[in-house]
Structure formats: structure tokens, C-alpha cells
Design a protein that fits this description.
With about 100 residues, the protein is mostly beta strands. It has a single domain, classed as Nucleic acid-binding proteins (OB fold (Dihydrolipoamide Acetyltransferase, E2P), Beta Barrel), CATH 2.40.50.140. It contains 1 helix and 5 strands; from the N terminus they run H-E-E-E-E-E. A 5-stranded mixed barrel has the order 1-2-3-5-4.
Length: about 100
């Protein structure tokens, strides 16, 4: 009985979680997140950087540029939006004036 309750309180499984950096917050309730990953090159066995930019839903408009966020895969919310911001971590702390 307890195992059934603990499974229900956890978020839905099978949905990917990614960590990235907000690069644009100009849209209403939407942020552009850049996800960076490193992979090993097949031939040269050197680590190379791969980047992907995705649109994520930010219901409260609290995410700003350079914030680190955790996004979760979701159902399609618009033509290009398939991710939802679930956690806003720290910002980089760099202030440009």
C-alpha cells in the first residue's frame, strides 16, 4: 500500500529532464533555453560540444537571461514549445551595465 502512494506523489516518469541556460526571455510565458552536452567524436576520440536551443514554457515569467533552469518534456503547448520549466536554479551573477 505504501509503495502505491509513493509512486503517485512522484512526477510522471518517462519524461526527460534537461538542464540548460536561458538565452532569451523576450516572449510572453516562453523562454529559449540552450542545452549543452559533450560527446566523444567517433573517429578522433576527442570530446566535442553539442548545443540545442529549445523553447520552454515559463508560466510565471520569472526566468531571466543567464539563469540556469531544469526543463521537463511535456505535451506540445504550441508549434515549437514542448518543454516546461520546472526549476529555476541560480543565475551566473554576471551583471552587464
Amino acid at each position: 500500500m505504501e509503495s502505491e502512494q509513493s509512486e503517485q506523489s512522484e512526477p510522471k516518469s518517462g519524461r526527460r529532464l534537461l538542464t540548460g541556460r536561458v538565452v532569451s526571455d523576450k516572449m510572453d510565458k516562453t523562454v529559449t533555453v540552450e542545452v549543452v552536452r559533450t560527446v566523444m567524436h567517433r573517429k578522433y576520440h576527442k570530446f566535442v560540444t553539442r548545443r540545442k536551443r529549445v523553447h520552454a514554457h515559463d508560466e510565471s515569467n520569472e526566468c531571466k537571461v543567464d539563469d540556469e533552469v531544469v526543463i521537463q518534456e511535456s505535451r506540445p503547448l504550441s508549434r515549437t514549445k514542448r518543454w516546461v520549466v520546472i526549476e529555476r536554479r541560480k543565475s551566473s551573477g554576471i551583471v552587464t551595465e
